[in-house]
Amino acid sequence: MIEVTHAHLGLDHVQLAAPRGGEEAARGFYGDMLGMVEIPKPDALLKRGGVWFQCGAHQLHIGIQDDFTAAAKAHPAFAIQGIAALRSRLESHGIDIIEDVPIDGVIRFHIRDPFGNRVEFVEKL
Predict the structure, then answer these.
(1) Which residue of 3, 30, 80, 117 is 20 to 30 Å from 63, comparing CA positions?
(2) Cα separation of 109 and 7, whole Å?
(3) What's the CA gap between 105 and 48, in Å, rounded?
(4) How high is the mean pLDDT of the chain?
(5) Which of 15, 48, 52, 24 is closest to 36 using CA atoms?
(6) What percent of the chain has pLDDT over 90?
(7) 86-113 pLDDT per residue, tens
(8) Phi then psi for 97, rounded to 5 degrees?
(9) How far apart are CA 16 and CA 71, in angstroms?
């Protein structure tokens, strides 16, 4: 048996990639549309571009990637309270809702962010 000398405390942040120049689209979508609050990046990382958001107790980092390819399968799943209202808001802005296999005790759906990354929203009943 392997001796474990550390403790996993949970997630600190999730990073999604965006193409160069995607910061304003990220602010519009994750900030304005989804209501996440932009937080400052450390000075040492500013030259890399991108934008960071607070999401509950965690952070979402949108990083700039020169050879960008959208994440088609891998994705963050955001825990939501009031998922029906979020769904209506997204639909009213022309964002396609992607249904998935139902899971007992959970309301969920996926969308694609402005860069094509898969994003899931989940509300536990």
Answers:
(1) 80
(2) 32
(3) 41
(4) 96
(5) 52
(6) 91
(7) 999 999 999 999 999 999 999 999 999 9
(8) -90, 130
(9) 8
Instruction: Report the phi/psi class of residue 26: left, alpha or beta, with left for phi > 0 and alpha for psi in -120 to 50.
Output: alpha
The pTM score is 0.92
CA neighbor of 113 nearest in space, from 83, 82, 57, 72: 72
- DSSP class of residue 98? B
CA dist., res. 78 & res. 123, Å (int): 9
Dihedral angle computed from the Cα positions of residues 83, 87, 88 and 89, in that order, rounded to the nearest 10 degrees: 100
Task: Please check the confidence at residue 1 and state whether its pLDDT lies above 90.
Answer: no
CB 17 within 8 A of CB 113: no
> Which residue type, as a one-letter code, is found at position 13?
H
Phi-psi region of 116 (alpha: psi -120 to 50; beta: other; left: phi over 0): left
HSE, side-chain direction, 13 A CA sphere, residue 106:
14
Residue 104 to residue 25: CA distance in whole angstroms: 34
Q: Letter for the amino acid at 64?
A: I
